[in-house]
From TrEMBL:
Domain of life from the UniProt record: Bacteria
Ubl conjugation among keywords: no
Name of the protein in its database record: Type II secretion system protein L
Family label: Belongs to the GSP L family.
Underlying gene: exeL
Domain GspL periplasmic intervals: 238-391
Source species of the chain: Aeromonas bivalvium
Length: 394
């Protein structure tokens, strides 16, 4: 099939949905448009036909990180990835869906998204009768720049691709802060008219329809969030058909042989032993020289600290984490930015139309950061305030 339906969803079901049908053979757009919200996705069922469906999701909902493993990446050492990511973010890693984007030696590039959000996206598509074969962040559907970053403005936000496995989403004000925080000016290849921002060498790239630009790059690559528990149902369906009868017979025999209480206790004890055994096997494979194992989690964390797997720091990381918060409180503007590398603190002087915006910003930022509020006062019709933010994981 040389034609594909590419859909760009929002974080919520009420946000507009852009779509495009692209013919790779003809090199042209068959059809395109915008739905008022994801509630209208069923209108694309006829457009999909037998075409594969590729879905773009907001890069602002995805976490991108590079972590360092104690040894080289393999199936056994991959079990340590959640421990490493836990050191870098404030979110509960157990609620995140992790995908490995690439690895080289001890370095592993990851992307992570809330599992519940994944289920929502797939639920909208399933309710509309659309079977998705590929899902990826929109920032990784931007073309890679040979030098510097690539950029594209969509509405009030800028999509920035910083490398093969790294990207961010920011409004114009936050983008200015990010650029100002760079040690040297960044070369930005913009596929839409550049904004009047200093701190970057803006280069005009070939202008194209945004959805066409994103669709072509997405179809060329192999980045896909649909892995593990979210792998397309077609593959699981084949395995399920093979094993359904066997599992049915086994379940019936177990129910006849064992009482319900005895069976439940037996299963819980077996699962507990198997899980502990698997954890110990992974640990001994990663650290073969250690024979005394008392507390796997504690000993794993101790090894990672000794090996230097400390959280990433720096103003760019903090500001990237703050991007969604600034977007949620558009009336609040940062006036002065100072970063204390020794303390790992970001100090902000902000202005807002009222006290409500500052309180809203403090509440949202408090989910990921430790927030200290300094003096807040009203001056010439605006409210000025001081805030100190520190990553909770540091």
């Amino acid at each position: 099939m040389n034609e594909s339906l590419v859909i760009r969803l929002g974080t919520t079901q009420e946000e507009p949905v852009d779509w495009l049908v692209w013919s790779a053979r003809e090199g042209e757009i068959i059809a395109s448009g915008t739905l008022a919200s994801a509630h209208g996705l069923h209108e694309l069922r006829e457009r999909a036909g037998g075409r594969p469906v590729v879905t773009l999701v907001p890069g602002s909902a995805v976490i991108f990180r590079r972590v360092r493993l104690p040894g080289k990446y393999n199936r056994q050492s991959a079990a340590a990835l959640p421990y490493l990511l836990e050191e870098q973010i404030a979110s509960d890693v157990e609620s995140l869906h992790l995908v490995v984007l690439g690895h080289e030696g001890h370095e592993v590039d990851l992307m992570a998204v809330d599992s519940q959000q994944m289920r929502r996206w797939l639920g909208w598509l399933e309710a509309a009768g659309l079977g998705c074969v590929q899902m990826l962040p929109d920032v990784l559907a931007l073309p890679q720049a040979v030098d510097g970053w690539s950029a594209l403005q969509l509405g009030r936000h800028w999509l920035i691709r910083q490398g093969p496995h790294q990207g961010l989403v920011a409004d114009e004000a936050l983008l200015g802060l990010l650029l100002a925080a760079q040690a040297e000016p960044v070369t930005l290849h913009s596929h839409t008219p550049p904004p009047p921002l200093a701190g970057a060498d803006w280069q005009a790239a070939d202008p194209e329809l945004p959805m066409l630009l994103l669709a072509r790059e997405a179809l060329r690559g192999n980045i896909n969030l649909l892995q593990g528990p979210f792998r397309p149902q077609t593959e699981y369906g084949r395995h399920w058909l093979q094993w359904r009868k066997v599992l049915g017979v086994a379940a019936a025999l177990l129910l006849v042989t064992l009482g319900q209480r005895g069976l439940a206790l037996y299963q819980l004890e077996g699962q507990d032993k198997a899980l502990k055994g698997e954890i110990r096997q992974v640990y001994t494979r990663i650290f073969p020289g250690e024979s005394r194992i008392v507390n796997v989690r504690s000993q794993m964390e101790q090894h990672l600290r000794l090996l230097g797997a400390a959280p990433q720091s720096g103003v760019l990381l903090l500001l990237t984490e703050l991007a969604p918060v600034f977007a949620e409180v558009p009336g609040l503007k940062p006036e002065v930015l100072r970063f204390d590398a020794t303390r790992g603190e970001l100090r902000l002087q902000v202005t807002a139309p009222g006290f409500t915006e500052i309180e809203r910003f403090r509440e949202l930022a408090g989910k990921r950061f430790e927030v200290q509020q300094g003096e807040v006062r009203s001056h010439e019709g605006k409210v000025e305030g001081a805030l100190v933010l520190k990553d909770k994981s540091s």
